Automatic annotation (TrEMBL):
One of its GO terms (molecular function) is ATP binding. This is D-alanine--D-alanine ligase. It comes from Acetatifactor muris. Belongs to the D-alanine--D-alanine ligase family. The active site is at residues 16, 188, 322. It catalyses: 2 D-alanine + ATP = D-alanyl-D-alanine + ADP + phosphate + H(+). The lineage of its organism: Bacteria, Bacillati, Bacillota, Clostridia, Lachnospirales. Binds 2 magnesium or manganese ions per subunit. The keyword Isomerase does not apply. One of its GO terms (cellular component) is cytosol. Pathway: Cell wall biogenesis; peptidoglycan biosynthesis. Keywords: ATP-binding, Cell shape, Cell wall biogenesis/degradation, Cytoplasm, Ligase, Magnesium, Manganese, Metal-binding, Nucleotide-binding, Peptidoglycan synthesis. It is found in: Cytoplasm.
Amino acid sequence: MKKLNVAVFFGGCSPEYSVSLSSASGVILNLDTEKYNPLMIGITKNGSWYYYTGPIQKLLNDTWHNDQDCTPTVLSPNRGENCLLLLEDGNISRLPVDIAFPVLHGCNGEDGTLQGMLELCGIPLAGCGTLASALSMDKDRAHRLVSLAGIPVPRHMVLEPDTPFEQASAFAEEIGYPLYVKPVKAGSSYGVTKVPGKEHLSAAVTLAFQYDSQVLLEKNIEGFEVGCAVLGNRELVTGEVDEIELSGGFFDFTEKYTLKTSSIHVPARITGTKAAEIKEAAKSIYRILGCTGFARVDMFLTPEGQVLFNEVNTIPGFTEHSRYPGMMKAAGYSFRQVLDRILELALEQKSENV
């Protein structure tokens, strides 16, 4: 059987550039090389594209971008041509692409921008499409849609650059401290602050505006965060629900990638009935936002047992130790099996949309 060329995109113009290098390495190392030929497409922090042919280790230590291992490249925009154009020494050569697998986190990669380009080119896309990616990245619009379907969400307010601070302060007093200040469109907890009191509100808002042009004030939810890995297009399967145990503060960037003072429990330490409820809620949210392929749905579980929506990660972390592969592993699916299914789903989705 002919191997399929899988273009794995990594890096990107995002604060989450370094996280993408780790995730892409995890994907490449776990692809079934009897079925797939990975093509590594690196995007630098300033947005230059390269076809990378060096060792994985250079992704992990961020030395991949060099003249020896890289050839400038772009996607052919001609629909149906399905190839990369390699630009070398004034010549153009074509490298066929059967499936595109974006492994970019945050803006300019997870937010529908790259997905739109790939869909325009007609290349089968692993994961969520343009609309679902954009909606899921936008915390305000995602919350509004999910709330309309009857699933509870935390109370929040959106701040624009010209919103008077007095309005933000009044809303903060209304929902009470502590509360969260978040960029509307960002990931990996960049720009997120848990605000303990009004004297810290202004600084938190200023920080969040460094990452997006809109900022969210969100009510703190007592309890803990749970997550659910979802896989599929029409028929969905889930991993086991996981639980984030915090010793203090919140699950910020440092805790997400070091677990210095927090723990992740898979399966979550909850009843089977509650786990089943969370899985069904995750599948409902996945469908409401139009997700396909795969995504991780994050929720809150209160001491009273209420489940509230937090956010959807359409390109969750993909290292061996990341939450999504961990939840699927607990449900009996190996990392390689999950990647196989994601790529199969990309081809299925493309055939349905032709």
